[in-house]
Design goal:
The chain has 14 helices and 10 strands. By secondary structure, the chain is α+β, with helices and mostly antiparallel strands. It has 2 domains: 106 residues, Phosphorylase Kinase, domain 1, CATH 3.30.200; 262 residues, Aminoglycoside 3'-phosphotransferase, Chain: A, domain 2, CATH 3.90.1200.10. Strands 1-2-3-5-4 form a 5-stranded antiparallel beta sheet, with no helix packed on it. Strands 6-8-9 form a 3-stranded antiparallel beta sheet. It has a two-stranded antiparallel ribbon with strand order 7-10. Helix 11 packs antiparallel against helix 12 and helix 12 packs across helix 14.
Length: 375
């Protein structure tokens, strides 16, 4: 990796060609290989996309490395929408993209941590994080929404951001596998009946683009593990390789699922003040998102539809995680098995209440369920 960076030093524009570079792998990712490269003072982040899911190795799940091209494309699209000031506020600086070898070189966020880590370890995060993420999603969704663009532009976005290989992974691992394979013990009392599964099928259709009355350009996997933050409340959105043109509720729901799971986790860690703070943070995200969508010219009817879809995507991800099908997520991991089981039951209760109840109760019902965890 140091040799590769040195070879492309002129294109990258960070290190001198004679700089002595070192590289170390960044562990914890699933899909790609990632490294930090440094000359002892400056650092950059390097990501390379193999023709398979990196965590499973060459003989595991095959993929096309062209997913990296989609990541580059959506960064460019977002940058154009946001303008320079907001682009630098919410997105990493991109130094170099090698579309032959599918290597991305960008800003390394020294002093930043992943938001999911802070939600579990700290419980309380600056309000600017939720407000910033809501604004970022609202502005990018509004600008690309199917009600605000000509049909030819919409059809181009549908085609350009189909991202079929990555979409199929999500359809299987997020919306299918956990409901097929979870045992009665894992469900811990959740009623997975025809009514519930109909809701899941509706979310799958929305995600897959089969329902096209409410669509925008989405990150596609905007859980708190795709957000980097620091103690000053700055926020950076990363890893949009699952980008799709789909329901805007997908992004908002993916993000809020982390806050909901964190609230459950904090409740069963005996931190009621953190639960209250996380509930307020959820409200911050939604209010900032709604304001940005309204400012972008999105109608109240579409925002209400997005609200209902947001709750569905939120609790679907909460459900997958509580059932134990979300890999190495930090949520609900307790050494005490009794506490762990009770926390899972609490998470699944929120799922059961809100999956069908969202059509009448909306997002306020979900917020009320979270707030109730502190009592």
């Amino acid at each position: 990796m140091p040799a590769y960076v040195s070879e492309h030093s002129k294109d990258i524009g960070v290190f001198d060609s004679s700089a002595k570079l070192t590289a170390s792998a960044i562990l914890g990712g699933n899909v790609n290989y990632a490294f930090v490269v440094s000359d002892g003072e400056k650092k950059i982040f390097v990501k390379q996309a193999p023709e398979y899911v990196a965590i499973f190795g060459p003989d595991g799940v095959p993929l096309t490395s062209s997913r990296m091209q989609k990541e580059y494309d959506v960064y460019m699209e977002w940058g154009s929408i946001l303008g320079e000031q907001l682009r630098s506020k919410f997105l990493p600086t991109l130094y170099y993209f090698d579309k032959v070898n599918m290597v991305f070189i960008m800003e390394f966020f020294d002093g930043f941590t992943l938001l999911d880590h802070d939600l579990v370890e700290k419980g309380v995060v600056p309000s600017s994080i939720g407000k910033g993420l809501g604004k970022f999603m609202g502005k990018t969704h509004a600008a690309t929404h199917n009600t605000k663009n000509e049909d030819d532009k919409i059809q181009c976005m549908i085609a350009d951001y189909e991202n079929r290989a990555m979409r199929d992974i999500q359809l299987e691992y997020v919306f299918t596998k956990c409901y097929k394979e979870a045992t009665d013990e894992q469900r811990a009392g959740l009623t997975v009946d025809d009514v519930f599964l109909k809701e899941i099928e509706n979310l799958k259709a929305l995600y897959n683009g089969d329902i096209q009355d409410n669509m925008a350009l989405c990150h596609g996997d905007l859980h708190p593990g795709s957000v980097m933050v620091n103690d000053e409340g700055e926020v950076k959105v990363i890893d949009p390789e699952f980008t799709v043109y789909s329901s805007p509720g997908l992004d908002v729901g993916s993000l809020l699922s982390g806050y909901v799971l964190a609230a459950v986790h904090q409740a069963y860690s005996n931190h009621p003040d953190a639960v209250k703070s996380l509930t307020e943070a959820c409200v911050d995200v939604w209010n900032a998102y709604k304001a940005a969508m309204t400012e972008g010219g999105i109608s109240d009817d579409i925002i209400k539809k997005t609200e209902i879809e947001t709750v569905g995507f939120t609790v679907a991800e909460v459900c997958r995680t509580a059932l134990g099908f979300a890999g190495g997520r930090l949520w609900l991991q307790f050494e005490d098995e009794t506490v762990k089981k009770e926390s899972i039951k609490a998470a699944l209760k929120i799922v059961e209440t809100c999956m069908t109840g969202r059509h009448n109760g909306g997002i306020s019902q979900m917020f009320s369920e979270i707030e109730g965890l502190a009592k």
